[in-house]
Amino acid sequence: MNTPSERVTSRIGLALAITFTLCFVTGLISHLIQHPPSWFGWPSRPVWLYRVTQGTHVISGIASIPLLLAKLWSVYPKLFERPVIRSLPHALERLSILVLSAAAFFELVTGLFNVAQNYPWNFYFPQLHYAVAWVAIGSILVHIAMKLPIVRRSLTTKPEPSRRAFLRTTWLAAGVAVVATAGATVPLLRTVSGLSWRSDKGPQGLPVNRTAAAAGVLDAAKNPGWKLSVVTPSGTKTYSLEELRALPRTSAELPIACVEGWSESAHWSGVPLPELLRHAGSTPGTPVRVFSLEKAGPYGISDLPGEHTADELTLLALELNGEVLDADHGFPCRIIAPNRPGVLQTKWVTRLETL
Questions:
Q1: CA angle, corner 296, sides to 292 and 302, nearest 5?
Q2: What pLDDT score was predicted for residue 33?
Q3: Looking at beta carbons, which pairs linking 107-112 to residues 24 or more positions away fall under 8 Å?
Q4: pLDDT of residue 198
């Protein structure tokens, strides 16, 4: 016969499996966009798709925190049962719980620090976070497989009134955590998201993750002699800022969506990349490598696939919200492409190379 704790644990565990799976799948998408294997492709339209997937990634991770704590609370008496190991299946079950708990806590805690842009560790966050995500999802699948008969029985019966109160408290805690933080991604919730970690505060109404001073490019960006080099099989063409401004330009309302989960729409104006490629003697749809004035760090170079270089909404942006780009937003020019992570919207562009 099922115990009350089994019924409660099964329901919380099912909710946790859903939020963790959402978090894993959307995180995997973000990783593949940033480190694409040869078989992977990511479209340039709709322009808001990455904003939704990465927002879902962070929101589902936030929702998982109270669910994980509630699940551990519901099963903690079993952690002290004796004997510690009764059989080989029992040992495997305990090991899976240990691995699952450790991996889940690591993912949620480091993810929470990441959205706050606080890194009190020496390892490279994206690589280890990605690797442990596979451990977490694998241990979840093993745990579900071992507990499936109990889950099936538990979901066919209702918990006792006292346990239903615990469940309601758990759902309420998860809901409050989501609403309190989701404003970073969902504009309609910004007035009620008291713990939202980003807003429209910043130069020209747009947040900044890395300033020009922090990137060490302020002097180079302000240098009157700055020129953009565009390297194609036809040769290399250089453009001063005045020459770029003289090229055909367009404007677009595009979101910039950060891997930390925040996103914000803005009005961008600049030279469409297909137009710039044609002017430099290349063909739209050709992959392009983008180089920044920022030399240190992993995002000083990015690759724009042909899907984006053929899109008229992919801009070499010169203006933001009707003003010349602020240095912190990438002056003298930056890439802004539809449906791309913010870390790949390279700022302080100095060189483009067709691949």
A1: 40
A2: 96
A3: 107/23, 107/61, 107/132, 107/133, 107/136, 108/61, 108/64, 108/65, 108/68, 111/58, 111/61, 112/61, 112/62, 112/65
A4: 61
Tokens 């919380």 locate to 12
State the amino acid at position 296 in one-letter form.
A
Instruction: Return the C-alpha torsion angle 89, 90, 92, 97, nearest 10.
Output: 140
Residue 62 has a CB neighbour count (10 Å cut-off) of: 25
Q: Give the model confidence (pLDDT) of 95-132 as tens digits.
A: 778 888 899 999 999 998 888 788 888 888 889 999 99
How far is residue 104's CA from residue 140's CA, in Å, rounded to a whole number? 9
> What are 177's two structure tokens?
């955590």
**How confident is the model over 125-142, as pLDDT tens digits?**
889 999 999 999 988 888
Stretches where the chain sits below pLDDT 50 are: 1-4
**pTM for the structure as a whole:** 0.89
Torsion of CA 101, 107, 111, 114, to 10 degrees: 120
Strands 315-320 and 263-272: antiparallel
User: CA-to-CA distance for 50 and 116, rounded, in angstroms?
Assistant: 20
Do 51 and 257 contact (CB within 8 A), yes or no?
yes
Residue 35: what are its φ and ψ, rounded to 5°? -130, 70
